[in-house]
Amino acid sequence: MALSGIQIYKLLPQTNCKECGFPTCLAFAMKLAAKQVELSACPYVSEESKALLEESSAPPIRLISLKSDGYEVKAGNEVVMYRHEKTFYNKPGLFVKIKTSSPEADVKTLAQRIQEYRVNYVGIDLEVDGIALEDDTNEGEKMKNAVKAVRSVCKKPLMLFATSAANLEPALTELNGESPLIGCATADSWEKFAELAKQYKASLAVMADNLDTLAELSEKIKGKGVEDIVLVPHGKNLGHELILQTQIRRLALKSNYRPLGYPTLAFCQTHAQMAQAIAKYAGFLVIDTFAEELAYPLLVLRQNIYTDPQKPIQVQPGLYEINNPQPTDPVLVTTNFSITYFSVANEVEGSGLPAYLLVADAEGMSVLTAWAAGKFDAERIAKAVKAVNLDAKVTRKRLVLPGAVAVLSGEVESELPGWEIRVGPREAVDIPKFYKQVLQAN
């Protein structure tokens, strides 16, 4: 049973040393009870107290890490049901299934595509996280050869799936120093899988079609010394999958039910399954096929859901040159909210018109939001102009403000004497037309 903040406080040294980052031991205890800090942050807690506090300090959903050469995919450690309550932390890992019956050349080709696939979205590089090998031949050597083929071209983390644990052991010998996931253990096969997971320090996926069986299996597997467990709730249909995933999350977070306090994995065949699994609440996804046009929307959806709503995506403030501008070309102003920046930059770049883009630090807010919050005003714009030494870069001093903050034009003129202040359009899509009709005409 989880301890309350006061109960935890009584087990702490009560020195108020502040080394944990909190002003008092009581404040730290309250955060610990809320699963918002780690017990390791307290440098003076006794070993006896550590044992007593283990349950309260452990996250409600265990953190699972799959590692390979230079890559790591994490799932778990989530503390809320809904993103607006706080935030989600570890994006669900996206793995592509490859069957071991596939010709070696096809395995290598697909694995290399997965390794090389990378797409930029508002300044963020998005990529697939790893490969899931499925033994569909019931031959351990086939799995071993598939691992070799993948590793010859791809270094990303692996999942290995087979109906028999014995068929995975030859492949695991090829993954020394890595932390893969193996599975899926069932009520009939869990003991062999648990022995293998413990021997090779692998995470273990356990599958069942109801929560009682999942909880029972996770406790048995934990009793065998395997701590890193991933739950695979096998739903009858899309609605049943949603119910199982939601119940697991709720029982882990709201009831602190340890047997279900693990990340989940979803096997997905349709777009609807993939989108649902990302939103509710899979820690890992295994998709049947890989296509760039399919992967991109999934990765964007995942990025949007797992972006901290209190920390907007930002770009670095500064001066950006678009289409090789000359000293006589105009300077457009915007904020460092990533979507705002790319909306403006893409319109200007796509038009082929040269311009400087001055990005002011607005703490990652959009133009109107930043202006309303006092984070995008004449003083900040003037500060940005001086920070990049614009006076030395342009001979014609023209500054174009976003149309949504036309009210700032007079104040900016006062802050920047000698500069011509123009008011541009409200929407980025209208910038090329404004540039041609107004800026080039004058």
Note poorly predicted spans: none
Category from helices, strands and their pairing: alpha/beta
CATH class of the largest domain: Alpha Beta
Query: What would the CATH topology of the largest domain be?
Result: TIM Barrel
- Overall geometry: globular
Average pLDDT: 91
**Tally of separate helices:** 16
List keywords for this structure.
alpha/beta; 8-stranded parallel β-sheet; 16 helices; Rossmann fold; TIM Barrel; 5-stranded mixed β-sheet; 3 domains; 442 residues; single chain; 3-methyladenine DNA Glycosylase II, Chain A, domain 3
Tell me about this structure:
It is built from 16 helices and 17 strands. The protein has 442 residues and is α/β, with parallel strands linked by helices. The protein has three domains: 5-57, 3-methyladenine DNA Glycosylase II, Chain A, domain 3; 64-305, Dihydropteroate synthase-like (TIM Barrel); 318-439, 3-Layer(aba) Sandwich (Rossmann fold). The mean pLDDT is 91.
Write the topology of this structure.
Blueprint: H1 5-11, H2 25-33, H3 47-57, E1 64-68, E2 71-75, E3 93-99, H4 104-116, E4 119-121, E5 124-126, E6 130-134, H5 140-151, E7 158-161, H6 169-172, E8 181-185, H7 190-200, E9 203-208, H8 211-223, E10 229-233, H9 238-254, E11 265-268, H10 271-279, E12 284-287, H11 292-305, E13 318-322, E14 331-335, H12 338-351, E15 355-360, H13 367-372, H14 378-387, E16 398-401, H15 409-415, E17 420-423, H16 431-439
Parallel strand pairs: 3-6, 3-12, 6-7, 7-8, 8-9, 9-10, 11-12, 14-15, 14-16, 16-17
Antiparallel strand pairs: 1-2, 4-5, 13-15
Helix pairs in contact: 1-2, 4-5, 10-11, 14-15
